TrEMBL record:
Keyword Membrane: yes
Native source species: Branchiostoma lanceolatum
Gene Ontology cellular component terms for the protein in this record: early endosome membrane; late endosome membrane; recycling endosome membrane
Membership in a protein family: Belongs to the cation transport ATPase (P-type) (TC 3.A.3) family. Type V subfamily.
UniProt xrefs under InterPro entries: ATPase_P-typ_cation-transptr_N, ATPase_P-typ_cyto_dom_N, ATPase_P-typ_P_site, ATPase_P-typ_TM_dom_sf, ATPase_P-typ_transduc_dom_A_sf, ATPase_P-type_domA, HAD-like_sf, HAD_sf
GO MF term set: ABC-type putrescine transporter activity; ATP binding; ATP hydrolysis activity; ATPase-coupled monoatomic cation transmembrane transporter activity; metal ion binding; P-type ion transporter activity
Transmembrane annotation, as ranges: 34-52, 253-272, 422-446, 458-481, 934-952, 958-976, 997-1021, 1078-1096, 1108-1127, 1147-1169
EC numbers on record: 7.2.2.-
Domain P-type ATPase A: 289-408
GO biological process: one example: intracellular calcium ion homeostasis
Extent of the signal sequence: none
Protein name: Cation-transporting ATPase
Domain P5B-type ATPase N-terminal: residue ranges: 16-170
Length: 1240
């Protein structure tokens, strides 16, 4: 395509995952007229090509132009696929828009620039803070064009819709931009100025911009689905083949293909329709519901949810609701079931957005204040009589659920080498077919055949060389694998990824709930006294009433649902261990706390009385939770503000990761042996939680607490102590990790837990092997004049002296002596300041702790960029992004979040990883075998037909039918039934059809089959009784050369061909009932069975062939049929199949012996040469040296790394180390302490 200047194309969604290149085009009448003429000349086939290639459609009928004048836009993705799509630019003007003109005119009278909306939108996309007036102006300005004139005839709205998202014209930037809600560039404090709601005019204006609030999944009628399915290139080629066969009177196989295609299409349509209906039902429940909104601070108005727009104020009823949009809470609390998004069935508490925060709102950063579309609000908590209100921030497909639905409707194409290589090989087959086509045309033209006959026979060669059944045959193995996975409780929404699972060479695991048990048991509490730790208390009844016990009873987000305490499992275990009681007063109850509080906790049984003074009343010891700052995985902590009944002041309690809590506490309150005690427990695999507290000043009242920011609350804390939780490994974990290690599949832990706990679990499950040292990588961001730096600390903890081999370590095993561990904080610094180091640390790393959900996804992307095929296994809680990004995401959650993961296991153990890799390898090898078989089938039939064309003979319809339907179809259907081999081996299946062993196998097998076909043909020519069909043909049509004795020929052939009874006026019979045809038919029938057996692999990826009893039975039956047809066909059968009767029975035996020799040579060639891994490793050593993946190169560099970090190929003595400075990217001279301390 020609290079366009800036006005003709622009990048939209720049810097984002869905970045697109946008080109503008305007219709050209001359080009359109020429295209229509060509389409008519091709009987509409040109438009079929345009359907497959939308960019060709645009280039053929439109000319490039500036985007502002574009009638259509061409969009191209910026990923490796570079996919084109076409969208029509829509223009709404004047009366077509439901806009209130008075509002617009008022805007003009005030002298407002009509492009302020675009200006505001630009600010929003750049995440610059907006004011309320800025946001209000955008609705009245959106409908105007480039001119600032406010005349009604200038009102216009230019936009296009791509993948269900609306892109509007931005006159300031002169490009199209995605329509955004209030999720970008809005300070948190602004939402409280929107609390009075929108006016009807503002709502109407915004609805013009945003459209209806609906996630519409249309269920297409069967006739429309059929139309789209039939236009698939595969079915178009089948239709061409069927028409060709019908014209050649090859009715039987044509009818069989029609039946098979109809069954295939019918099944496909049913599946697509069923999925559409399920998706439709999933979103329709919240598309049309009645909700209450506020209109300009007046009375609450009930509207249909489709009319909601960003800025509307929604009332959440006390008994809950299904959220129809994304909204941010501005009053009250809500308890939600977010299983649709997170996979967690545990209810979560959402609190109101900080009112005084100048921080810019983000749905991800403020997810604990955001109610997401599709989630179920179970109940609400509110203060006094105030309603629970939320401001709508996103609607329709822009919501979190809309994004999920869009990812299902428009999945990313898979870049799978098998498919790419298969397409290339099909092109090779097409090239071979064209050679045969040319030969046939020339040869038959020289013989004087009619033009119609020539092209009929020549085109037939194309359908022979490129079999229409090839795509169906390739999917059969995947279908069988999917059925086997289902029997093992593994379900897939992306069956095409099963083959990719066979290539997995790295598996990432979440820790809690994946490698370890879901439940945590409270093992002990370690309080502090006088700023020092006291001995651990394992019986909590011995823990005195005080701040630590109160912190454990209040620092949670538990709630009572249906009379049962619900919430995070860790919080449940902690609260149950205190044996306190939890009460949630309702709105009808009187309160002892001067305000209605969501939750009250109290000690069990007896009440503890507080005596403030003799004149004051006594209060039972009850603690009310005034406000919650819910747990944030990025902050790694949660806090609550409480008030004890009768107390004059409020208290803050904070719970979280010990490292995080220690930074929020006053240094003098932290015990001096804090890290030593912490390591004592974390190194043993315990999960440790820290507590801190701070009494607030007396002047801090209830309303003040509702406005305080989290930063104000979580500061100057006093350290209280540690809670030690025991999290045992699942019994299946260690054996599975051992098998993966034995198969040379790398394993990595990506967890949000403490790095010391993660390392301990990694050692316990043998993810870190005995004898390996842990190298902790710590990265520090630049501060003042100090540049960013990376330090390393090596530990020999848990390594017995005899395990350390030092200088005696084998060269090939050196890298196994070290492995990296780092935290999410260091990961972020390295990613920003040391991007050249990150790939090596990823390759050499095993433990990545304190990783946020986004960082998990980023690490997966790093591994994929290095050439790994990555599997990710998690419980779905914070792993959704990583599960979607990985080549094989495996969710252990059965809830709706599994929609985001390609695979879901009902069994919550990592056994599914082994099963999936085994089945993936089995399906992959099966696909290769089926493809090779189909390719050989095509070439065998192509070669035999080409030989027959050389003597002006051909196979008969029944013979074609026997080959295509009886032999090929049955083999293709049962060949893929072999189950996966139970043991995972180190050997990897091939990744491409273009690998040398596979190419060698196919080329040599083709040569062997051709050699035996030619051998049989020339052996036939050497027989004394043989009379060539060409001579007989010439004799019967009167053009016999005078040197041939026709009487002798007729006499010789009389007993076999019976020329007087054959009707040569019928072209279908001509050249079929011949010695040549019968010979080539007999040889080919055996070759199909031979290649099927040879290409059906067993160990090490599939069960042996004999375990597939149906396949073995099919081969036995087909072999028996072939022998029977060759040696003893009865007269009716020979007549039906159109077989010539050989006068010499010995010749038949020779053909049978040739078939046996063919089998032996083909099988030995495949076993001794094509499948000889040692031989190919030796032959391709040079190839592998020059075609290594990035991670393989880095693995070798890590043996002795001199430039980018620790030289992990050598044992380090105490006091040596490395530091990296980002200025030069090389190791500096500063010595960083590397010792044998017990830090890790």
């Amino acid at each position: 395509m020609e290079i366009l200047d800036e006005g003709q194309f622009h990048y939209i969604n720049k810097g984002q995952e869905d970045q697109l290149e946008c080109h503008g085009y305007k219709r050209d009448r001359i080009k359109t007229s020429v295209t229509v003429v060509f389409a008519m000349c091709t009987l509409g086939l040109l438009f079929l090509v345009f359907y497959w290639k939308p960019e060709w459609f645009v280039w053929a009928q439109f000319k490039s132009c500036e985007l502002v004048n574009a009638d259509v836009v061409l969009l191209r993705t910026m990923d490796e696929h570079r996919t084109w799509s076409k969208e029509t630019v829509k223009l709404e003007t004047g009366d077509s828009m439901p806009i209130h003109i008075s509002s617009l005119e008022a805007g003009c009278e005030d002298g407002k620039d009509v492009h302020q909306m675009q200006e505001v939108s630009n600010q929003s996309s750049d995440s610059s803070p907006l004011t309320l007036s800025d946001f209000n102006r955008q609705d009245s300005a959106v409908i105007h064009g480039e001119s600032s004139n406010c005349q009604s005839d200038q009102q216009s709205l230019r936009y296009f819709i791509h993948h269900c998202l609306k892109y509007m014209w931005n006159a300031e930037k002169k490009t199209f931009e995605k329509v955004r809600g209030l999720d970008s560039g809005i300070p948190c404090s602004v939402f409280y100025t929107l609390g009075h709601g929108l006016s009807s005019t503002d709502q109407a204006n915004r609805q013009t911009r945003y459209g209806d609030n609906a996630i519409t999944v249309k269920v297409k009628p069967y006739i429309k689905l059929l139309f789209y399915e039939v236009l698939n290139p595969f079915y178009v080629f089948q239709l061409f083949s069927v028409c060709l066969w019908m014209s050649d009177e090859y009715y039987y196989y044509a009818a069989a293909i029609i039946v098979m295609s109809l069954l295939s299409i019918g099944t496909q349509l049913y599946t697509i329709r069923k999925q559409s209906e399920m998706l439709h039902q999933m979103v329709e429940s919240h598309n049309t519901m009645r909700v209450k909104v506020c209109r300009s601070g007046e009375d609450w108005e009930e509207v249909v949810s489709t009319n909601l727009v960003p800025g509307d104020v929604l009332v959440i009823p006390p008994n809950g609701m299904l959220m129809p949009c994304d909204a941010v809470l501005i009053t009250g609390n809500c308890i939600l079931n977010e299983s649709m998004l997170t996979g967690e069935s545990v209810p979560v508490t959402k609190t109101q957005l900080p009112s005084q925060s100048s921080e810019v709102y983000s749905p991800e950063e403020h997810k604990h204040h955001t109610l997401f579309c599709g989630t179920q609000v179970i109940q609400t908590r509110y203060y006094g009589g105030e309603k629970v209100k939320a401001v709508v921030v996103r609607t329709g497909f822009s919501t979190a659920k809309g994004e999920l639905v869009r990812s299902i409707l428009f999945p990313k194409p898979l870049n799978f080498k098998l498919l790419t290589a298969a397409y290339r090989f099909v092109l090779v087959l097409v090239g071979i077919a064209m050679i045969g086509f040319t030969f046939t045309v020339v040869w038959m033209a020289l013989d004087g055949e009619s033009v119609g006959e020539i092209f009929l026979e020549a085109l037939d060669l194309i359908t022979i060389c490129v079999p229409p059944a090839l795509p169906s045959a390739l999917t059969i193995g995947i279908i069988y694998a999917q059925r086997r996975l289902k029997k093992q409780d593994i379900f897939s929404i992306s069956p095409e990824r099963i083959n990719i699972c066979g290539l997995v060479d790295l598996v990432c695991f979440d820790k809690t709930g994946t490698l370890t048990e879901d439940g945590l048991d409270l093992w002990a509490v370690v309080p502090t006294k006088n700023d020092s730790f006291v001995p651990a208390i394992q019986d909590l009844s011995m823990l005195p009433l005080g701040p630590l016990l109160t912190a454990m009873a209040t620092s949670h987000s538990l709630t009572v649902i249906g009379g049962k305490l619900s919430g995070d499992p860790l919080d449940l275990k902690m609260f149950e261990a205190t044996k306190w009681e939890l009460e949630e007063p309702g709105s009808e109850e009187s309160t002892k706390f001067d305000m209605l509080v969501p939750t009250v906790v109290r000690p069990p049984h007896s009440m503890v009385l507080l005596h403030h003074s003799p004149n004051e009343r006594e209060y039972p010891y009850e603690v009310g939770i005034i406000r919650q700052f819910t747990f944030s995985s990025s902050l790694q902590r949660m806090s609550v503000i409480t008030r004890t009944l009768g107390s004059q002041n409020m208290v803050v309690y904070t719970k979280g990761a010990p490292e995080t809590i220690s930074q929020l506490c006053r240094p003098e309150t932290i015990p001096l042996d804090f890290y030593e005690v912490l390591m004592t427990y974390t190194e043993r695999g315990f999960r440790v939680i820290a507590f801190a507290w701070r009494p607030l000043e007396d002047k801090v009242k209830f309303l003040h607490t509702q406005r305080m920011s989290r930063h104000e609350i979580e500061t100057d804390l006093t350290f209280l102590g540690l809670m030690v939780m025991q999290n045992a490994l699942k019994p299946e974990t260690t054996p599975i990790i051992h098998q993966l290690n034995g198969a040379n599949i790398s394993t990595v832990m990506i967890t949000g837990d403490n790095i010391l706990t993660a390392v301990s679990v990694a050692r316990e499950c043998k993810m870190v092997c005995p004898g390996q040292q842990i190298v902790e990588v710590t990265a520090l961001a630049p501060a003042d004049s100090t540049p960013a730096a990376i330090t390393y600390k090596v530990s020999t903890k848990h390594i017995e002296p005899e395990e350390i081999k030092g200088a005696d370590v084998d060269e090939n095993d050196k890298r196994d002596q070290f492995t990296f561990a780092m935290s999410g904080k260091s990961f972020a610094v390295i990613k920003k300041y040391f991007p050249h180091v990150l790939p090596k640390l990823a390759v050499g790393g095993t433990v990545f702790a304190r990783m946020s959900p986004d960082q998990k996804t980023q690490l997966i992307e790093v591994y994929q960029d290095l050439g790994y095929y990555v599997a990710m296994c998690g419980d779905g809680a914070n792993d959704c992004g990583a599960l979607k990004r990985a080549h094989a995401g495996i969710s252990l959650s059965e809830l709706e979040a599994s929609v985001a993961s390609p695979f879901t296991s009902k069994r919550a153990t990592i056994e599914c990883v082994l099963t999936l890799i085994r089945e993936g390898r089995c399906a992959l090898v099966t696909s290769f075998g089926v493809f090779k078989f189909m390719a050989l089938y095509s070439m065998i039939q192509f070669m035999s037909v080409l030989i027959l064309y050389g003597v002006f003979a051909n196979l008969g319809d029944i013979q074609y039918l026997y080959h295509d339907l009886v032999i090929i179809t049955t083999i293709a259907f049962v060949m893929s039934r072999n189950s996966a081999y139970p043991k995972l081996v180190q050997q990897r299946p091939p990744t491409s059809l273009l690998r040398p062993p596979i190419l060698f196998s196919m080329v040599v097998q083709i040569a062997i089959q051709l050699a035996f076909q030619l051998g049989a043909f020339y052996f036939l020519l050497s027989q004394s009784w043989f009379v060539p069909w060409e001579d007989y043909r010439l004799c019967n049509d009167g053009s016999m050369n005078s040197t041939i004795n026709t009487t002798d020929i007729n006499t010789t052939m009389a007993s076999t061909l019976k020329p007087c009874t054959v009707n040569y006026d019928s072209e279908s019979d001509e050249g079929v009932l011949t010695y040549e045809t019968t010979t080539m038919f007999g040889v080919a029938t055996f070759q199909y069975v031979i290649t099927a057996f040879v290409f059906s692999k067993g160990k090490p990826f599939r069960q042996p062939v004999h375990t597939n009893w149906l396949y073995v039975l099919d081969l036995i039956i087909l072999t028996a049929l072939n022998v029977w047809l060759l040696l003893y066909p009865t007269q009716p059968v020979a007549y039906f199949v159109e077989l010539a009767q050989f006068p010499d029975f010995t010749f038949r035996l020779y053909l049978l012996a040739g078939a046996v020799a063919n089998f032996v040579i083909s099988w030995l060639t495949e076993v001794l040469l094509a499948d000889n891994n040692a031989l190919w490793k030796w032959l391709t050593v040079s190839y592998h040296q020059h075609h290594k993946k990035k991670y393989q190169v880095l693995q070798e560099e890590l043996l002795y790394d001199k430039d980018y970090g620790l030289p992990v190929g050598a044992m380090l003595s105490q006091g040596t180390g490395k530091e990296i400075n980002p200025d030069d990217g090389h190791s500096g001279d500063t010595c960083i302490q590397i010792d044998d301390s017990t830090y890790l």
